[in-house]
Amino acid sequence: MNVIRIPNVFQASATELPFPDNYFDAVFTDPPYYDNVPYSYLSDFFYVWLKRAIGDLYPELFSTPLTPKSKEIVAYTNNRSWEEAKEYFEEMLKKSFQEINRILKPNGIAVIVYAHKTTSGWETLINSLLDSGLVITASWPINTEMKARLRAKESAALASSIYIVCRKMERQPTGWFNEVKEELKKHLNKKLDRLWKEGISGADFFISAIGSAIEVFGKYEKVMDYEGNVIRADKLLEYVRELVTEKFESIAFSK
Ligand SMILES: C[S@@+](CC[C@H](N)C(=O)[O-])C[C@H]1O[C@@H](n2cnc3c(N)ncnc32)[C@H](O)[C@@H]1O
């Protein structure tokens, strides 16, 4: 017999989820991509019409004249500096990943989709993930975008998004940067060959390498150098960029 399950839909900020600890087997999320899309401002266009048409049916969802903006996780620079926007985004994303970790059952799985062309956009995601407690176990690029979409017109937009798979489990304590570098080199060498064969190229190749690198350093609570300095995403990504450039040149010139 077919059982029809009616899903429950809730509206809340990702930074304050209305669920108890250890509640879900899996969480799947597509968070905002740094400064890519001003979601709430775009939503205003539809919101004012929806409010007129169905506002009386869902008064709690349409209580404000325009969409609420104060808890939106976007790196806006219209009211703050670049540095402040980046800090705000990183902090809010960290809170929402910590919430995911809290509501997942032990060994539960989280899939986080992300796409951004700039290292800055990735730095914030990686720092937030490293501080969330989640352990990254895999990452794959998946072609998700239509070539003809408006966002791709006259811009070098990415064709793929990176699907980052995480678990709620114990992390390995400290990874030593020198050893992590060796591990990264070996891992990226293999994985980039595979991705290249599967047709990932251009900007997507570099971005997929970042995803693959997270598989290595995302399993440690923190990465440190021998002098005791904590290595954050900017340093890790600098090294990944060197490795990808080397790999790209070796693949491109061997043809
Ligand atoms: C990449 S988009 C998701 C797009 C969606 N997967 C789709 O296909 O339509 C990110 C979404 O996160 C929402 N968002 C921003 N801040 C949020 C917050 N604090 N809590 C929950 N969602 C938020 C944005 O409004 C936007 O809809």
Question: Would you give an account of this structure?
Answer:
By secondary structure, this protein is an alpha/beta fold. The protein has one domain. Helices cover 42% and strands 17% of the residues. It contains six helices and six strands. The strands form two sheets. It has a four-stranded mixed beta sheet with strand order 1-2-4-3. α4 packs across α5 and α4 crosses α6. The model has no long low-confidence stretch (mean pLDDT 89). It binds S-adenosylmethionine. S-adenosylmethionine binds next to loops.
| Largest beta-sheet details | 4 strands, mixed
Uncertain stretches: none
| Chemical compounds bound to the protein | S-adenosylmethionine
What count of structural domains?
1
Instruction: Report the β-strand fraction as a percent range.
Output: 15-25%
Helix content bin: 40-55%
Give the ordered list of helices and strands: EHHEHEEEHHEH
> What is the mean pLDDT?
89
Overall geometry comes to: globular
Gap between N and C termini = 57 Å
Task: Supply the number of helical segments.
Answer: 6
How many E-type strands? 6
Record the strand order, biggest sheet: 1-2-4-3
Structural class: alpha/beta
Radius of gyration: 20 Å
